[in-house]
Amino acid sequence: MDAFDLFVIARALHVLGVVAWIGGVAFVTTVLIPALRRMPEADKRMELFEKLEGRFSLQAKVTTLITGASGFYMVHFLGVWDRFLQPRFWWMHAMVLVWVIFSLVLFVLEPLVLHRKFKEMAQRDPEGTFRKLHLMHVVLLTLSLVTVAGAVAGTRGIRFFL
Ligand code: HEM
Fold first, then answer.
1. CA of 57 to the centre of ligand 1 (A)
2. C-beta 8 within 6 A of ligand 1
3. Domain-by-domain residue ranges, the chain?
4. Which of 38, 74, 100, 125 has the smallest CB count inside 10 Å?
5. Ligand 1 midpoint to CA 95 (Å)
6. How far are the Cα atoms of 2, 16, 44, 88, 125 from residue 76, in angstroms, in the given order?
């Protein structure tokens, strides 16, 4: 196996990581949270959300690590660090931005702050808390999907007016 084979494997792992991770975010955003918001028993919402998203959290952590490691390996292999200095490669910045946001939430903010804060807020105001949670997921999902589209088109040379 030569270095190019490793690069192709990294690329396949990168795309698999993105599919499992962003696909999960899409499910939570478009199916799980809307279903929970429609549940009549507000106190059960939180319990169910914790059980279901808690399981996804491990999957998201593993896929975030795979996507990041394979991504940086590809930047190194291709020798394209200078892309980060060029606005026309905005989709490279977007990939790293999405990765940094999710890594911060999953590995730092959620365990240290968000978990406790979200529970407290949901007890005080379940409707408002789930509305905010939904909005946050919609924003992150939109950013992720624009990034995926930009990266697929950008790696094939599309210039996007810049
Ligand atoms: C640390 C974070 C990341 C780094 C360093 C990184 C780096 C890279 C590199 C170097 C490529 C290949 C570019 C080329 O062939 O010219 C690539 C492709 C790609 N990346 Fe990322 N990436 C990261 C995170 C992400 C994230 C979070 C997403 C999704 C939201 C993503 C989606 C994609 C897609 C869809 C491709 C195109 C694959 C293809 O069409 O073959 N990446 N990435």
1. 21
2. no
3. 3-155
4. 38
5. 6
6. 15, 20, 48, 19, 47
